[in-house]
Amino acid sequence: MTDGEATHGPLGSLGLESPVESVYIALLEGAEGVSDICRRLSLPESAVRDALDRLSELALVRASTASPHRLHAVSPHRGMDILIARQRSELAVHQQRLDVAQAAAARFILAYEERQLPGASEGEIEYLPGLDAIRDHLAVMNDQVAEELLTFAPGGPQQPGNMEASRPLNQQLLRRGVRMRTIYLNSIRADRPTMDHARWLIEQGCKVRTVPSLPNRMIIYDRKSVMIAADADNTAVGAIRVGAPGMVAVLHWLFEQVWQSAESLEAPVSPAPGELTAQQAEALHLLAFGHTDEAIAKRLGVSPRTARRITSSLMTQLGARSRFQAGVLAIQLGFLPLHAD
């Protein structure tokens, strides 16, 4: 073997690097002395002597009892036992260091959280500034969730890269037995990639429904912790983690109310003659309360152009000349309740 050949042979995983392994095998095959090993392996004498020193350190080579001037390699059975025992010892030391490191990490996290929220009740509320803090928190919570994960997913059609990146995590959670329910906007029904992703989620065991609009992005973990976008219009700004039991209970109640009114993907979305779709009804409600087309677009998860088309169609259908008149006519025709809830 020359210096240019691979540095790890079959026994590399046991800590026997080349050329040490080659020298050990040469001795097993009957090589006698340093010069014979050099000739067989085409190695310089210094490399062979270094390898012999390493083999002696590992107790794989010793002086022959028959002749102190000859070298004896222990049998492969005994040699492998020695190497495996050494690996186990190193693994035990490494595990001990890992346990110490994990304990130190836990102490650091606790001390950091206490500094972040001076005077606040432990675990009740935390502000997460920016995407990096949000992603770090999501990684921790996704590891800790044990029973249930509930999600409001506004924004309409989802980004292809985000959907693809989320699939391994979704599979991992569902295989762990975590129950998952996700509510999307009705607008995803017009986007094939998002619909394909939603159907894939259902095939994996997740339950999926849609609604015309959602108030904000929200994730509920095991009914114990909730993460909400700090700004519904710009989720990258930051998020708020809520752990106070009373607040979590209210947010969980909100999710369940929306879930009960949501439609499964298999439910027909075409209205009966003379009726409005759920999306049109929500747009009309927003229109009547003075929301702009841009605001309506965000709530419905559609483009501003689509929102303008929806509102224009509604006003034409109602025969309204203004948004205020559209609201009045919608109430008169029974499309909106007389009193706001």
Explain how this protein is built:
This protein is an alpha+beta fold and 341 residues long. The chain folds into three domains: 1-116, Arc Repressor Mutant, subunit A (Orthogonal Bundle), CATH 1.10.10; 125-264, Endonuclease, Chain A (2-Layer Sandwich); 278-332, Winged helix-like DNA-binding domain superfamily/Winged helix DNA-binding domain (Arc Repressor Mutant, subunit A). Helix content is 52%, strand content 13%. The chain is built from twelve helices and ten strands. It has helices spanning 20-28, 33-41, 45-57, 76-116, 130-144, 160-175, 192-204, 245-261, 278-288, 293-300, 304-318, 323-332, and strands at residues 61-63, 71-73, 125-129, 148-153, 179-185, 207-211, 218-221, 225-229, 238-242, 263-264. Helix 1 (20-28) packs across helix 3 and helix 6 (160-175) packs parallel to helix 7 (192-204).
